[in-house]
Amino acid sequence: MPHIVIISSSVRKGRNSHRTALFFQNFISSNALASVEILDLKNYDFPIFEERLRFFENPTLLMLEFASKVKHADGVLIVTPEYNGGYPSSLKNVVDLLYDEWRKKPVAIATNSAGPFGGTQVITSLQFSLWKIGAWTVPAMFPVPKVQEAFDENGAPADEAGTHKRATIFINELLWCVEAKKRME
């Protein structure tokens, strides 16, 4: 069974995008699609980016743990809010902190916003950063408009049938890429 890590990237007070991360954790595990864990950036105290992890003289244990979890995952699902057309600095920090860990890693991106567009403006800039460091971004999107209405605080969707239908397509794309990568190794 593949192992997926979900990066919940918002560290903001009162964040809503974490609801999407909780939804995917529940969805993946309850459908026995993969083993899954959330890497909540709110639980990590990463410094402002100063250098890639491999060049740190004394990396913190949390940095090493995070890097190991990303490296050993079969795939990564990033859940990110859109802040003024971009993604949060907490996510940019960890994208840039790692390098080899992202290489050829299947990465799916779920975007969120409080407004009607679901964070779709952020996807190209995040995909570009991931592409530049060698990640394999999955050609599927999962935008969540009005995230505060789409999921409750525990990740339960307001429209269960519709959300599950979209999530099935999205996660199947990630799992297809995970399987394809395994076959190419």
From TrEMBL:
Residue span, NADPH-dependent FMN reductase-like domain: 3-146
A molecular function GO annotation: FMN binding
Pfam families xrefs: FMN_red
Cellular component GO terms held in the UniProt record: cytosol
Classification via InterPro entries: Flavoprotein-like_sf, FMN_Rdtase-like_dom, NAD(P)H-dep_reductase
Record-linked SUPFAM superfamilies: Flavoproteins
Stored PANTHER family: CHROMATE REDUCTASE (PTHR30543), NAD(P)H-DEPENDENT FMN REDUCTASE LOT6 (PTHR30543:SF21)
The name this protein goes by in its record: NAD(P)H-dependent FMN reductase
Species: Pedobacter africanus
